Amino acid sequence: MRNGRDTVLLTWTRPALPVPQFPLLFYFFFEDLDALVSTLDDAGLKPVRLGHPPHTPGGEVKVTDPDGNTILLAQEEQSPSQPPVPEENEKDWFSILKEAAALVQARGGTTAQCEIRSAGTICSQQAEVKLADSAGHSAWACLAHADDVLVTVPGAFIASQEDGLAPFLSCA
Fold first, then answer.
1. Which of 92, 52, 32 is CA-nearest to residue 60?
2. Would you call 141 helix, strand, or coil by DSSP?
3. What are the DSSP calls for 60-123, one per residue?
4. Are 74 and 33 within 8 A, CB to CB?
5. Which residues of the chain have pLDDT under 70?
6. Which domains are assigned to the chain?
C-alpha cells in the first residue's frame, strides 16, 4: 500500500509459516519524531523512548495499540556514513538495508563477494550485508540481492557481524 512517500508492505505465505501467535509489529519512520511524540502525549498515549540504536540515529519510540500490537516509530535520519540523497529519487530514501551496509563499511567492510545465486548464476557484485534465516543459514549479499531475499524468503533477516546470541547462551 502506498500513499505518497509512505509505503506499507503486507505479505502472507502459503503454506502458512509455523510461528507462534503473537501481536503484530509495525515500524514507521518519521521526519520529526519529537513532534510526533508530543502529539501522542497530547492524545493520552504513552510512547516509550527506546534510545538511539545504530539503525535509527534520530531515536526510536514504542507505543502499543489496544489490541496489544507493538508500533515502533523512528526518526528518519541517515547516518553520517551515507551520502546525502536527492528527495526526488524515491529509490534513494532512507533504508535500513543501506544503514546496515554503512555499519559493515564503517567496521572495515568485507572482502566477500555476493553469495546469492540468481537463475543459477553467481552474482559478481561486492557483498555489503550479511543475511540469515531462522534455519541458521547465513550469506553475504549485495544490496540488490539482499532486498530480494528479505522480501521473498520467510524468516530472513539482516544478520549482525558481532557475537549475536552467544553472550546470552553462555553460562558465565
1. 52
2. strand
3. EEEEE-TT--EEEEEE----TTSPP--TT-GGGS--HHHHHHHHHHHTT---PBP--EETTEEP
4. yes
5. 1-24, 54-55, 66-67, 78-94, 161-172
6. 1-77 (3.10.180.10), 95-172 (no CATH)
- What is the Cα–Cα distance from 56 to 58, expressed in whole angstroms? 5
Considering only CA atoms, which of 102, 106, 126 is closest in space to residue 116? 126
What pLDDT shows up at residue 127? Answer: 93
CB atoms within 10 A of CB 100: 22
What residues have CB less than 8 Å from 119, skipping those under 6 apart? none
Nearest to 40 by CA among 84, 16, 18, 72: 72
**Count of residues making up the chain:** 172
Grid cell at residue 105: 563499511
pLDDT for 64: 81
Q: What is the pLDDT of residues 126-172, one digit of tens each?
A: 999 999 888 888 899 999 899 888 877 878 888 876 655 666 566 55
What pLDDT does residue 126 have? 93
